[in-house]
Amino acid sequence: MAGCDQxxxxxxxIATTLMLCGGRLAPSERxxxxxxxxxxxxxxxxxxxxxxxxxTYRFGQCAxxxxxxxxxxxxxxxxxxxxxxxxxxxxxxxxxxxxxxCLLTVGYGYxxxxxxxxxxxxxxxxxxxxxxxxxALPEEHPFWRxxxxxxxxxxxxxxxxxxxxxxxxxxxxxxxGGAELRVPAGAxxxxx
Length: 192
Prior knowledge:
Layout: H1 2-20, H2 29-38, H3 63-71, H4 78-93, H5 142-145
């Protein structure tokens, strides 16, 4: 069985690497540029902005950073990449996302079948396991050697132009409890 487990990890790693590289075997600058913005969709503690249709994949949001490490794309300091993966996992594993049988459930912050879409099935939440691609890295990889590191705050980033970033903090109107409102461009929401 151990051989099968290793083969599954290898196949998942190859599939995720191909996905990350858009079908190319050599990563491009595109992934590095995306990483510069995407890291700010996560709070320093690991919680991510909920977005997209498939929220039931939960910690699958941090799979991009795990795939960066696996593909060898040093788009950010390894400590920042590590903090986004491990911080997001810590945040999710503190939530009630498992059934009494320790299975991942359909839902977001808790089991909620009403949140499921017609394409979701009981196995859908397991797409989140792509976040564990970093487990295929050898123990001497810089990802494992690095200390977790918080990225520079939004004030250290350009606010306009081709190198502008979209940080999470301070990007939207504040709501009770310190949360911020996020509205997709063109959604007719408040002008930010």
